[in-house]
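Summary for the funding panel

The consortium committed to producing paired sequence-structure records for every protein in the target list. Below we show the first two records in order, beginning with the earlier of the two.
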Amino acid sequence: IDSLSKIPLIFSQDAEWGLGMRIREIEDFPYQMTLGAVQNDSLIYQMGVAVAAQLRETGINLNLAPVADVNNNPLNPVINYRSFGEDPEKVARKAAMYMKGMQDNGIMACAKHFPGHGDTETDSHFGLPVIKSALERFNKVELVPFRYLIDQGVSAVMTAHINAPALDGTPKLPATFSNKIITGLLKKDMNFKGLVLTDALNMAGATGTYPSGKADAEAYAAGNDVLEYSTDPAKAISEILKRVESGKIPLEDVKTKCRKILAVKYWLALHKDTVSLAERAAEFTPAPPPSSLIRDLYADAITLIENSNNLIPVGRPDRIRMATVAVNAASQTEFQHMVSRYTHADHYFIDPENIQAAEFVYSRLKDYDIVIAGITGLDLRPASSFGVTDALRNVVSRLSSHQGTVMIWFGNPYGIARLDLSTPPSGLVIAYQDNDYTQQVSVQVIFGALGSSGRLPVSINEKYHEGFGLKSPGNLRLQYGFPENAGMSSGILFSKVDSIVQSGLDSMAYPGCQVLIARKGIVVLNKSYGYHTFDRSVPVAEGDLWDLASVTKVSAATPSLMLLNDRGLFDPDKTLGYYLPWYRFSNKGDMLLREMLAHQAGMPPFIPFWKSTVDEDKSFKKGTFSTSENRRFSLPVTDSLYINRRYTKEMFREIRDSKAGSKKYVYSDLTFILAAEIVESLTDTTIDK
C-alpha cells in the first residue's frame, strides 16, 4: 500500500490492548479498566513499550490509544471497561504512562475521545450521546486527562461524536463538527499543537448530523487535521475543495494541516525509506515476550475486597478440607487446576440454570472448611447486565452463605453491584477479566504466592468504592510464571531442557520424567515428558506423585563444594584425609574427593545408622533420643523428636571404620554426609548458613 504513494503513509490501528484488539491469534494485554487497578504504573509504561514493538513489526506507526475518558457511568455502553477508571487524576497518570511507553519507542499515541465520552448511556456508533454536565464539571473531570496528556506531549487527540451543550450550545451538534470545541477549546485554550483526528465518520453519531461529504467538510472546518473512515472520500474532497475555493476554509489552514502531517511523518522517520523494520526496531527499547508482562499486569491488578478473619492467604492447606466450584463451567477450569498445584481439592461445577444439580453441590460443600468459587462466563458489558442473571444471583448468595467461601469474580467490577451480598463471602477477589492469566494469578493471591495490591478503579457501591482494596502478603509459597519473570529467557530455557530430556528418552536412560524449574521463588517450567514405563502405556502427567530422594546432595552438598572450589578453598583432587585429618590413617584417607563425588572411590553404598540407636527389643537406646529439645538433644529428627548432638560423631566413626570396596561405580550416600563436614571445617560455620 505504501508504494502507491510518493509520500510515505501513516498507518494506524485501534490497539488499546495491543495488536490483538484487531488481529486474531495475537495475545491481548489487559483492558484499561484492569490497568486502572494496577498500582505499579511502571508496568503500564512497559506495556506501552511492548505494544510499540508489536506495532513496529507490522508497520503500524499510530496507535489510536490510550482511552483518556473518565468512566463515571456504570451503564456506559461504549467506554466502560476501556477506561482506566473514574478518578480523573489517576486516569491521566496511567494514560500518560501508556502514551510515553509508545512514544519513547517510535509509535505515535492518540488520546481519545475528546472532550470526554465517559458519562453517557448512548453508544456513539449507534446514536448521538449528550453529555449534560456543566462547564465546571468538564474542567474538573472530563478535561483533566486530556490537559495532562497534552502537557506530557501526546502526539494526537481523537475527537468524539458527542453533544456537549456546556461547551457548544448548538443543538444536536457533535463535538467533531464544533469549531468552538476543536479549534477554540482544544487548540487555543488547551494549546494542543499535535494532530487532531476525528473518530470514524461512518458512526451514527456523525452520519445522523450531516450527509457524506458535508460531514467531512464540517469536521475539517472545525479544526480536525485527519478525517477517519470517510463514508465517501470523493465527495469529501469535492466538498472541502469547494469551501477552500469559496474562502470558507482558508487555504492557509490547509497548508498548516499539511505541514503538521509532514512533520509527524518526519518524526516517525518515514522519510528514511531505505531503513528496514528490523533496523528501526534496533533503535528502541527491546521488548520481552509479552506473556511475562501480561502476567505481571494481571497479578498487580488483582483486588481483594473481602477477607474475613484474614482467611487470605490460606494457611496450612494440608490441614483443611478444600473444594472448588466453577460456576458457569462444565469441565475443569484453569483456576481449579492452579488450586490443585498447591493442595488437594475436590472440584465441583454449577450451572445456575440447573437448580437440582446445584442443590446437590450445596449439600456436598457443607463438609469442607474452605470453598474457592470462581464465577466465570460473565460479560463485561452493561447491556447484558454484566452477565448477572437471577439464577446467578441465587448461586452467589448460596455460596456466600457458606462460612469459608472465597469467591473470585472473573468479570467487570460493576457487576458486583447487581448481586445480593447482604451476607458477603469470607473472601472476595476481583480479577476483572476471565482468561488463563487471571485464573492463575488470582489463585496465587489466595495461597499467598502473590500479594494482593490492586485497588478498585471504579465504585461498586458505598462500601466498595473507587480506590478500595485490601492488602495481603505474598512470597509465602512458590509463584507460577514465565522464565522472563525470573530474569531468564523462555527460548533458551525451553529449548535446552527439551534437548536434554529428549536425549535421555532417545537413549532409553528413562521412559519419562517431569521437569520443574524454579528461580527467585517462581516456577518457570513445569513440564512432563514420556511415559511411566518403557511399555509406553501411561504417559507422565503433572499430577503424578514422585519419590524424591537424595535431594540435599544436589541442592546443598554439591553446590556448596562447587562454591568453595570457585573461591579456591576446595580442590576435588585432594584426599579425604587432607580435609578430615581423623580419616587420614583409615582405609579411606587416600580416597580422592573427585572419585568420591563420582561414586567411584570404593565407599560402601550406605550404612543403616538407625540400627545403632535401638536395643534388641526395638526400643530406643537410653540417651539417644528425647521428645523435647534441649542443649543435649539439639538435633531435630521430626517435629517432636530430637537426637543427641554427639550422635554425629558416632556416624562419622562408623563411616571411618567401614570396609572399603574396589574403585568401580557404586552409588554411595556416605560421601555427601562427609561433604557437609568438609564444608563446615573449611568455612567455620554450619552448612545451612
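The next record, for a separate protein in the list, is shown here:
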Amino acid sequence: MPIDKSSLYFAALESAIDLDPLMVAPETPVAEVLALMSQLRSSCPISDLLPTSEGEAPPKIRSSCVLIVEGLPPGATTKSTSSVSSQELLGIFTERDIVRLTAAGQNLKTIAVGEVMTRGAITITKSHNQDIFTALSLFRHHKIRHLPVLGQGGEILGVITPTSIRRALQPANLISQLRYVKDVMSTQVIHTPTTTSVLNLARLMAEHRVSCVVICENSSHQGKILTKPVGIVTERDIVQFQALDLDLEKMQAQQVMSAPLFCLNPDDFLWLAHQEMQRLRVRRLVVAGKRGELLGIVSQTSLLQALEPTEMYGMIEALQRAVEDGTKELQESNTRLSQEIWERRKAEVALKIAHDELQKKVEERTEELQKANALLQEDIKRREQVEAALRRSEAHLRKQTEQLEKALNSLKQTQSQLIQSEKMSSLGSLVAGIAHEINNPVNFIYGNISHASQYIRDILKLVRLYKKYYPEPVEIIADQIDEMDLDFMISDLPKLLESMQFGSERIRQIVLSLRNFSRLDEAEMKWVDVHEGLESTLFILQHRLEVETDAGPIAVVKEYGNLPPVECYPGALNQVFMNILTNAIEALERQGTLRENSPSTAPRCITITTQLVPDRCEPEKEWIEISIADNGPGMTKTVLRKIFEPFFTTKPVGKGTGLGLSICHQIIAEKHGGQLECVSQPNQGCEFILRIPVRQVKGAG
C-alpha cells in the first residue's frame, strides 16, 4: 500500500525544533552574549572553575547560537518565541564566530554583536510540505549547523540543530544501524601537540573552519611515527574560556583538553556512535586504529549524513512490500495446508489397507531374501579376497612409482648440478687463462715503473740544476721551454707516474683475486686461508657493492677472527661465498628500490663474521664458523623452509635456476662434512651460517 511520508516525518520535524532559542538585540555587547551562551559547565578539565559537581548533569545543553532580532530593547534578552512575533531576524551568532574573533585578537567587551553576526542567515519556513529531511538537505547544501525556523508570517518559531534532529530521529534510525563509522567519518582532522596554546587552538579552528582540534602525541612503532590522540578541545570550550576571561595565550592544550578520550573503531556501527554520544553527552568522537593512531572524527553532522531521504523512503517502502507479500504468502500457505490435511486423512485410510497387503508380501519376500542373502554372503567373501589382492598389487605399484619419481628427480638434480659444475669449471679455466695472460705484461709494466720513476727524478734534478746555473738560456731553448710549459711538466710528471703505479697495482690485485677465485676445478683438498677466499670474492663483487643509487652504496663490515689454515676444496668454498654474497647484494638492491617510496635511515650493510668454535660433541675438535648477514627484507617462514630445495627460486623466470643454494648446501654438507643454515624473518634481514671442520675426517667428501 502507498506510504504517507508527511504523516511519518512531519511530527519528527516538529520534535526537532528548539522552541526556546536565545535571542538578543543587535546592540548587545559580545561579552554579554558570551556569558549567556556559557551559563552551563563545559566538558573540559577546567570545569573546576564552574559551580557544578561531577555527578550533576546539566538541566539542558547550553545554547550554541544566538539569534539577533530587531525590535528587542537594548540589553534585553529572551528565550521565548511567543513574545517576539513582531520582531525581524537580522542574523545569527554562533560559537564558530566567537572562535574566529578570539583568533583575530578582538576585544569582545567593546564590540556589539550586530557588528560581527552572520547576516542573511539561511532559514526554513514551517509548512506541511517541509519534513525533517528538508532541514538535512539545507544543512548539507549550505554547510551550516543552525537553521532558524520561521512561521508563515515571518515570525521566529525556533531553531533546528544537528543535536535536535538526532534526538528526534534516534528511535527510528534504521540506516545508522546498518552502516559503519568508516562510511561517514571525516579523515581531514586538525590536530596539534599538547604544548600548543589555547589561543593558537582558536586560530587553527578559525583558519580551517572546524569545530574542534584533536590533541595528539607522537609515538614510534616498528620504525614508523604514529600520531595518537590524547584529548580534544572544541569551540564550546573556547567560548567557556572567554566567558571566564582567561588568558588563552598562556594556557596550554594539555591543561584544558577533554581527556581521557573514548575512541571508536572504524568498523563500529553508527548506532554505537550515536549511543556513546548520548551516554558521554558529547557532539563528536575520535576514530582510532588498532595501534591507537588517529584515523578520523565522527560528529553529529556525520551521523546525519547517513539519513539520506531517498534511502529512508526506499527502505520503508521495501519493508511495507515485504510485510504485504509475507501476509499473502501465509494466507496461500494456510489454504494449501488445509487441502493437504484432507488429502492426508484420505491417504491414511488407503495406506492402512495397503499396509496389510504389504505385510503379507513382506513375509513372503523375507523368506526369499534370506535364501538370496546366503548366496550373496558367499559372493561377498570371494569379492573381498579379490579386492585384498588388488590392494596389495596397487600398493606395490604405488611404491614402485614413488621410487621411480625419486630416481627421476635425483637424476634431474644430478644432471643440473653436473652442468653447473662444468660451467664453473670452464669459467675457472677461462679466468685462470685470462689472469695468466694479463699478469705477464702487468708485471713488466709494474717492474719498470720504479726504474722509470727514478730516471725521471734524475732528469728533473738535472733540469733544475740547469735552471739554477744557467738562468739565461739561448733564445731557441727559451722558446722551446715556453712552448713545452716546462714548469707544468716538472710538477705534473711525478703525478702521472704515481697514477700509473696505482693503476698497475690495481690490475695486479684484480689478477691475484681472479687467480684465487679461479681454483674451481681443483680436485684435491688443500690447506688455505678462508679470509683470502672471502677477500677475493668481495674484490670481484666490488663493482656491485659500490654502485651509487638513491639508497647509497652497500657497506661491508668485516669482523674476522684469528683462524688457522683450513683443509678444504678452495674453489668449491669460493663458489659458496660467491652465491651467498650475490644473493645478499640482490636482496639489498631490491630493498633499495622499495626505499624510494618508503625512505629509511638505516644504511644497507653486509656483515661478515668468522670465528673458531669447538665441536659440540667433541670439544677437542675445532671448527670454523663463517656468518654472512644482511639487513635486507628477509624471508617468510614458507620461503625459508624451501631455500635449499633444488630448482626453488623466488626470482622472476629467466633470472635464476634455483640451484645456487642447493649446490652450496651440497658443497658444505657432503664435500666438507659441515653445516649450512639460514636464520631470517620478514623485515629483519637474513643470516647464513657456515660451519666446517678445520681438519677433514678421512673419507669426507
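Regarding this second record: Residues 309-469 form the longest helix (161 residues). The longest strand covers residues 224-234.
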